[in-house]
Amino acid sequence: MDIWLIKAGEVLPLGQDGRKMRTALLADKLSERGHRVMWWTSAFDHFKKDWIFPDDREVRIGNNVRILALKGFGYKKNISIARFYDHRQLARKFRKLAPGFKRPDIIVTAMPSYDLAYEAVIYANAIKVPVLVDIRDAWPDIFLDQVPNGLKAVLRLALYGEFRTLKKTLKKADGMISMMNTLLEWGLNHAGRQRTWKDKVFYLGHRENRRPADGGEKLGRLKAELSGKFVVTFIGTFASYHNPSILVDCAKKMAEVKDITFVLAGNGEFLEGVRRKSEGMPNVKLPGWLSQSEISELLSRSSVGICTTARKAEFFPNKAFAYLSAGLPVISAFDGDLKEVLEEYGIGFSYPPNDAEALAGCVRRLYEDKALYKRMSEKALKVFKEQFDASKIYESYSEHIEQVASTQEKEEGVRGYKERIRKRVS
Questions:
Q1: Domain limits at 264?
Q2: 194 with 244, same domain?
Q3: Within a domain: residue 178?
Q4: Do 243 and 324 have their domain in common?
């Protein structure tokens, strides 16, 4: 089949050490199963806030996967007017360019970008091909969380057009996919319908963590400093939603424990603030943005993985799966599916957002109770292999896409047959 995947803002797997996230992993699996994949995306790097390509660009990866990167406006902050303009531009380009390509057999579009998802659904309906929407976050509801309760009604009114776009996108889709149960229920509520067999949860997952032969230059400098340490690790974007500065507060509270080191890997708009806050603290390391091999090396030297958030939220981030793939217990501030998994399988702890004292208590407990740590670590790796291994998740995801496409084709055939009979009778 010819399958279109639509997702802007995800790391593109370019080069030998390109990091592969949800869309890339799905593209790989679909390609392995013999399908031709075209991935519509952006020429802008959402994480580094820089251009990947200076213009619209098509890139081939292997024999069956090609990436079509569209140039928008770019932006400096995740929550900004510039990002809205950028996504509008991508959506307009898709609407203009899509008819020029061979008709796909099915479209799988992610949200965000919501403008792009809307155009993808409208186009799929127009050419009568099935379309699945893969929900990645609760937009535009997430904006309501940014303001006091007294202003929520005003902001909801201001975002009326965005909520209308969301509702149309979800109602016109043939099915919804999500990375966690709570987000799928959110989508069904906005669409105003019950769940069907086409609506599925496929966790983000992660590939099995394999320590590389060469961990990279950045981690090479850290190896000696991490040797023999209890390493508390955060990997991700230094942005408002996942701001890891609470780990600096935690490190201050635990400064007397000399063999605990905090590694905060990644970059983003809050990096410089975290850097200033951690000045003069030898137990805090900031290696910056890491390649996939460097991440694998860091995880193999880590003791525990941290998922931070500054406010109450239900989320199951990519980093949690990465931590589990290395057999790391997870300490998280998120509610929802991740909290339930940590509690059900005993593979980590939850703490209230912004509570550095509680976070330090969780770290200290794992550090001091060696038997508990060993038990959680073994369970974490077992749970990962059974439930969160990307090779299994994206095999099932690919099978679901095939089933939706083939069922839709049969349904169209039956409708066409009935229409021909009706015309003959009349």
A1: 217-388
A2: no
A3: yes
A4: yes
Fill in the amino acid letter for 114: Y
Per-residue pLDDT of the chain in tens (426 residues, 90 and over written 9):
999 999 998 989 887 556 788 999 999 999 999 999 999 999 999 888 899 999 999 999 888 999 999 999 988 887 788 888 899 999 999 999 999 999 999 999 999 888 999 999 999 999 999 999 999 988 877 777 767 777 878 877 887 888 899 999 999 999 999 999 999 999 999 999 999 999 999 999 888 877 665 555 666 677 778 888 999 999 998 887 788 999 999 999 999 998 999 999 998 888 999 999 999 999 999 998 888 888 888 999 999 999 999 888 888 988 999 999 999 999 999 998 999 999 999 999 999 999 999 999 999 999 999 999 999 999 999 999 999 999 999 999 999 999 999 986 656 554 554 555 455 555
Amino acid at 311: R
Residue 211 resides in a domain: no
Whether 351 is in a domain gets the answer yes
Same domain, 362 and 401: no
212 within some domain: no
